[in-house]
Amino acid sequence: MEHSARILIAEDESVIAIDLAKSLEKLSYKVIGTSRNGKDVIKKAGDLKPDLILMDILLDGNISGIQAAEEIMNNYDVPVIYLTAYADPATLDKAKLTEPFGYILKPFDERTLHTSIEMALYKHDINKKLKARTEELKAEKEKSEILLQNILPIPIIKELKEKGIIVPNNYESVTILFTDFEGFSQLTSSMHPGELVAELNDIFKIFDMIIKKYGLEKLKTIGDSYLIGGGFPIETNDHAVNIIKAASDMLENIKERNTHSKYEWKMRAGVHSGKIVAGVVGKIKFSYDVWGNTVNLASRMERLSLPGKINITAATYELIKNEFDCEYRGNTDISGNEIIEMYFVTGYKSQDKDSKETMSHSA
Predict the structure, then answer these.
(1) What is the pTM of this model?
(2) Whole-angstrom Cα distance, residue 174 to residue 275?
C-alpha cells in the first residue's frame, strides 16, 4: 500500500503530537490536522475526511478519546488507532467496545507506528470491500426475492426455503376464475405485435392490482386468457366473494377503458368453486399451477359466458348469493352426462347498490 494516507492526530499533549507528526511525515504519511479535545476531533473528522485517526484515549474536555472514536466510526466510517500510555484492563475493555483498528502504546517507535497504520488501513480497506460486496449481494437477493414472488406465492416460497421441496396440496374449497376477450383473434389481426403486447400488458397490470387488492392468487396468462384463484395457498372462507368482486372490478375497468381506447375489448368471465390440487412444476422455470375438475368447469363457464358477464356455477352461487344478485340462466351438459346449473352475476345486493354500480351495466 502506498504511504500517502491522510492522517488526523488527536493528542492532548503538544510535545507528543509534534513528535508524532514528524514521525508520520518521515514515513511518507500526510498529517492533515491535530486536535486536543474530543469535540474538536469529531468536527475535524467530518470536515477533513481523514483516512485514519491516531486517537489518544485520554483527551482534554468532557469527551474522551473512546467516546470520540465511537461517534466518528459510526458517522464517518474512519478507522481509529488508539494511542495510550495506560494499559489497565478497565481502560482497554472500554476501548475494545468501539472495535478500534489497533493500539499503539506510548512511548512508540517508528516501526511499530508504521506497522500499526498499514495494518489498520489494510483492514479498513478490506472491510469496505466486504461491506460493498455484502450490499451488492443483499441487493441481488432482494431482486431475486421479488422475481421469485412474481412466480410463486409467498407461502410456497417460505416452504421451499424451509424444506427445500414443495409438496402438492389438496384444497377442498377454492374458487377459480377464467377471463378472456371475445373476438380476440379478429381484434388482434389489425394490430401491430408491439401494440398488441402493450395493450394486453396494460390491461393485465390493472388486473394484477385488482387481485392483489382482494388477496387472490394469479396463476397464469395464456394469450388473452387470465387465470386466478382464491382460497389457496392460504385457505379462506370468502374466496368466492372476493373472486366475484375482483371480476366485477375487471369488467368495470374494461368498460371504462373502452370509452377512450381505439379498440373495444369484450371481456367475459367464468367461475366455479370446488376442490383442486395445487403445486409447483418445473425445475428450470418454476410454475405454480392448479389441477382438477374445478379448473375445467371454470374454463367451461368462461366459454359459455357473454361479453360483460360473469358466468358462475351453482356451487359458486351458493357461496355468494347473500352478497350478490344473480340471474338463473339454465343448465349445461358436461362430460359424463353431468348437468351444471349456471347463473349470471348481475350486481351487489340491493343494500349495496348505492355504493356499487350493478355489473349488468358492464354488458
Answers:
(1) 0.63
(2) 6
